[in-house]
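Throughout this chapter, every protein is written as a compact record of paired, labelled lines. The reader may check this reading against the record printed directly beneath this paragraph:
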Amino acid sequence: MKRIFAILLSLLLTASLLTACTNQEGLQDGYYTAQVSDFNHGWKEYITILVKGGAIVSVEYNAENASGFIKSWDNAYMQSMLHINGTYPNEYTRYYAGQLLEGQGEGNIDAISGASSSHATFQMLARAVLEQARKGDSSIALVTIAH
């Protein structure tokens, strides 16, 4: 009986250690944000993720101007960009965010034609926000982008 108890205790301790190691390497629960450090053409892009149970459950990718207005809400900009580039912020921000959510930060994020600059920025922000989530650091990560 003592031997069975010792084996069960050993298995329980081993499982606890494995779980602790996994949590340190995985994503910590909470909200995390990475933001471009400077405005570019009047906008500052950002990603905010929510992690629950070690998994990303929500991703918001967008940009805001100095007054806090969200880029994907700007209908005039949307119409102009759609006619010139064939895409617009409300489309590509959802697409990139969806790919990050689906892949849970693993794998590649495919670019949308006409939004390649935002794709490059998104990838840099995604790396930064995932690093914040791994560390459990809820402060905003500022990312410098060369324009």
